[in-house]
């Protein structure tokens, strides 16, 4: 479970003294490091819930303390569920914050928007990730024990272990992370017929950048301009780094850094796509196409407008059609290959957009164009100490006399500890267990008062 307080209190965190006795300076230093870390993890304003923005792609947190493991936006995860047990899901598309809706049970209340018992957001798609379970293997995700990098499927948005994707756990993955932008998992390739129909035309066809990776590490379908050397690493791939691989950085933090770069990389790519002469406007023809009407397993996006057929080129540029069973993908599967499909950088420009091909993309606008991802506004108070933030926003909501388990409560508390220790630090006194115990005793009394 991705649990922010666990991240902070991890015994493996660097800078946290582990011996019984230490000088107060050590502890203050460690506490400041933790505070800086907390700000880095959550440098966002948490006074604006995304509910009014409707169904968007945004970072989500599933609350395991409230009813039904429903998910809330980043702001609500802090302001309304800060002391609850949360599963961090990173970016998920087409999702509206469920804080203060009936989905979270009667009496659910959003303290930012003062919304209570709003109707459940019926378009939100809940899957096992919201229960903290990920990948084909169904393992829970724990940022402290997870040693593997994880990949996010572009279609189902599940997070997958590299070893579950590639089949080998102890060797370097056959495809470097800078050799692909994103991937579609084998479950989607096999189980989602619409996705399969699109990908099968391209997958494994050399030059397309729609790649298959064999169990022996052979890669087919590399892009025509593929660089083979150690080119510049583009961090656009949706990768969740395991703790070990991230040089001891907490996975969530690393992922956030990636997500930030991701947005930049994607927006620059998007500009390129938008400037190309590919019109995108009216869906009528596409929506009435019988081959695209059964969108049982894909959420339909409201903005997936397609131009009328007459505005589209009639000449098809896709790889030639071959009989079913003879595509590289079918042959690959027949020999036991895992049909995870890897999409190279700039994959949105891979597909033919002729009048025959384009309608099959109507339910997958994210294949045609980079997605907009909501990023919570940065907190202008991020330089403020978290103690002050706690005073400003949260002190009046802190659970009294309970275990201290939110970042805010923690930092507020640890600031008091710092104040307690500062005079001892000044005099160079060695801190003993007794000092700490007497501090906790005073805390308990203060809380009961
Ligand atoms: Zn919210
Ligand atoms: Zn909650
Ligand atoms: Zn809320
Ligand atoms: Zn797995
Ligand atoms: Zn998938
Ligand atoms: Zn075509």
UniProtKB/TrEMBL annotation:
Domain UBR-type: 47-115
SUPFAM superfamilies assigned to the protein according to its UniProt record, in alphabetical order: FYVE/PHD zinc finger (SSF57903)
Comp. bias (Basic and acidic residues): 251-273
Any coiled-coil regions, as ranges: none
Keyword entries, A-Z: Metal-binding, Zinc, Zinc-finger
The organism's place on the tree of life at top rank: Eukaryota
Region Disordered: start-end pairs: 244-328
GO molecular function per UniProt: ubiquitin protein ligase activity; zinc ion binding
UBR-type zinc finger locations on the chain: 47-115
Annotated Polar residues bias: 275-295
GO cellular component: cytoplasm
Name of the protein in its database record: BY PROTMAP: gi|472584983|gb|EMS22558.1| E3 ubiquitin-protein ligase UBR7 [Rhodosporidium toruloides NP11] gi|647400880|emb|CDR46722.1| RHTO0S13e00650g1_1 [Rhodosporidium toruloides]
Species per Swiss-Prot/TrEMBL record: Rhodotorula toruloides
């Amino acid at each position: 479970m991705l649990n922010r307080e666990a991240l902070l209190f991890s015994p493996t965190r660097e800078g946290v003294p582990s011996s019984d006795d230490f000088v107060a300076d050590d502890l203050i230093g460690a506490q400041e490091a933790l505070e800086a870390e907390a700000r880095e993890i959550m440098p966002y304003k948490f006074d604006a819930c995304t509910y009014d923005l409707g169904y968007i792609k945004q970072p989500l947190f599933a609350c395991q303390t409230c009813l039904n493991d429903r998910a809330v936006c980043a702001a609500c995860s802090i302001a309304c569920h800060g002391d609850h047990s949360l599963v961090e899901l990173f970016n998920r598309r087409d999702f509206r914050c469920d804080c203060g809706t009936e989905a979270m049970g009667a009496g659910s209340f959003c303290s930012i928007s003062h919304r209570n018992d709003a109707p459940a957001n019926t378009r939100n798609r809940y899957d096992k990730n919201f229960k903290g379970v990920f990948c084909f293997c169904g393992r829970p995700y724990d940022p402290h024990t997870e040693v593997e990098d994880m990949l996010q499927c572009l279609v189902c948005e599940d997070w997958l272990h590299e070893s579950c994707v590639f089949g080998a756990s102890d060797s370097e993955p056959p495809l470097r992370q800078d050799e692909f932008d994103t991937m579609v998992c084998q479950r989607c390739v096999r189980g989602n017929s619409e996705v399969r129909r699109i990908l099968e035309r391209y997958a494994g066809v050399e030059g397309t950048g729609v790649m298959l990776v064999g169990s022996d590490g052979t890669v087919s379908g590399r892009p025509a301009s593929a660089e083979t050397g150690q080119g510049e690493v583009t961090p656009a791939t949706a990768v969740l780094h395991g703790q070990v691989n991230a040089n001891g950085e907490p996975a969530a933090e690393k992922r956030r850094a990636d997500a930030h770069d991701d947005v930049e990389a994607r927006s620059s790519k998007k500009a390129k796509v938008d400037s190309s002469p590919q019109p995108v406007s009216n869906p009528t023809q596409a929506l009435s196409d019988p081959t695209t009407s059964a969108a049982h397993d894909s959420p339909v996006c409201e903005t997936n407008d397609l131009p009328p057929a007459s505005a589209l080129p009639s000449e098809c540029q896709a790889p030639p059609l071959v009989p079913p069973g003879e595509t590289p993908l079918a042959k690959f599967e027949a020999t036991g290959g895992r049909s995870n499909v890897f999409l190279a950088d700039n994959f949105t420009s891979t597909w033919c957009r002729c009048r025959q091909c384009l309608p099959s993309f109507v339910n997958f606008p994210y294949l045609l164009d980079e997605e907009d991802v909501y990023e919570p506004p940065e907190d202008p108070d991020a330089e403020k100490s978290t103690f002050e933030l706690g005073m400003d926003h949260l002190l009046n909501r802190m659970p009294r006399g309970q275990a201290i388990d939110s970042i805010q409560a923690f930092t507020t508390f640890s600031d008091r500890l710092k104040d307690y220790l500062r005079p001892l630090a000044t005099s160079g006194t060695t801190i003993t267990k007794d000092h700490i115990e007497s501090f906790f005793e005073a805390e308990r009394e203060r809380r009961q008062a």
